[in-house]
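Hi U.,

Before I forget, here's the chain from the pilot set. I'm dumping it here mostly so it's searchable later in email.
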Amino acid sequence: KASVEALKRFPILNASVDGHDIIYHGYYDIGIAVGSPRGLVVPILRGADRLSFAEIEKAIRQFGQKAKEGTLSYEELQGGTFTISNGGVYGSLLSTPILNPPQSGILGMHKIQERPVAENGQVVIRPMMYLALSYDHRIVDGKDAVQFLVTIKELLEDPSRLLLDL
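Structure:
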């Protein structure tokens, strides 16, 4: 949900290059990297903007099961507009996600870990997660990439807006 909202605000990250043209997609078909016995595969969560939290969770769970069983179809692996990879499920603290052409962006999420943080002059322990964004610099400006990441951060820090669909 956070990624879709950020993609709506920064549509260049939901675009792709086709020859000399930039194609802006008016839909949100999000690739979700999942583990299989043969490595990572990226099934597509179609129409992610129209799905509830529960529907997204159920679809990702089904993708994971099908990946383990080797039953994902070719159609389920084609046509994404943006990808999310979560190395955190494998314990990764930070990595550089690899772009999935012709997509212009991929978000890497990592392990949530308690870390010391300065807050109002005090050191407190907070759950923290690193995010990484790889993008096609031919069409995505660094400023937009950083603002996209800041948007994701803000949405994850206050998920009530997404939960209440505000």
